[in-house]
TrEMBL record:
Keyword hit for Protein biosynthesis: no
Keywords: DNA integration, DNA recombination
Domain Tyr recombinase span(s) in chain numbering: 11-198
Protein name: Site-specific integrase
CDD domains, sorted: DNA_BRE_C
A Pfam family per the record: Phage_integrase
Species, as recorded: Roseinatronobacter domitianus
Signal peptide positions on this chain: none
Length: 201
């Protein structure tokens, strides 16, 4: 298994910084409803595109303020059998309002059939294309971090900068090992320098 990194071998950043995340979110909010909610869901949950495509209305807790995401990385229980792991990720109430309005989440939850259908019935390639287009519109530089994975890593770095405990972030991101999540703590120093430089300027 390859080790997760926040910089490529040439030292290029593989995550969106705070300014880029804000620009992406602003650009997403100018999109049609489907693309806007898709981008916002990735922004607010840090989930992988393949995990996003499995989200159904039944997994959206409008009153609890969370979205249940199925971890698609293979896990095994004590007997060695594959197990299904869900994680509940808290999201802002405003996003849930937007999601409900755009996709009729509450109405779909009243129907067993509708509540089991994906909110975004798209392919992974289509999700990648939408995210990439929005990132270009947000004027993010043409660099390795301009990707859905850069958005996920940006979520992890942002959460760490904001003081979210690593064990909680581990759960939100669906990492099997805390050591994987700990890479985000390594990036905090660089982000703090960036924030400090803006303060000094």
């Amino acid at each position: 298994m390859s080790e997760m990194r926040l910089h490529d071998p040439a030292g290029n950043r593989l995550y969106l910084n705070a300014e880029e995340r804000a620009a992406f979110l602003a650009a997403a909010r100018r999109q049609p409803a489907r693309d806007r909610t898709l981008c916002e869901a990735l922004h607010w949950t840090g989930c992988r595109p393949s995990e996003l495509l499995e989200i159904t209305p039944a997994r959206v807790d409008l009153s609890g303020g969370t979205i249940a995401v199925r971890s698609l990385k293979k896990r095994k229980d004590a007997s060695g059998s594959a197990k299904i792991v869900f994680r509940s990720v808290p999201v802002p109430p405003e996003f849930l309002d937007t999601l409900n309005t755009a996709h009729g989440v509450r109405e779909s939850q009243a129907s067993r059939k509708k509540s089991a259908l994906p909110i975004w019935p798209l392919s992974r390639v289509r999700v990648w294309q939408i995210v990439k287009r929005v990132m270009i519109e947000a004027r993010l530089p043409d660099a390795p971090h301009r990707s859905p994975k850069g958005l996920r890593h940006g979520f992890g770095v942002h959460a760490t900068v904001q003081g979210v405990p690593l064990h909680m972030l581990q759960r939100w991101l669906g990492h099997a090992q805390l050591s994987t999540t700990a890479i985000y703590a390594d990036a905090v120093g660089k982000e703090e320098q960036y924030i400090a430089a803006r303060m000094w300027g």
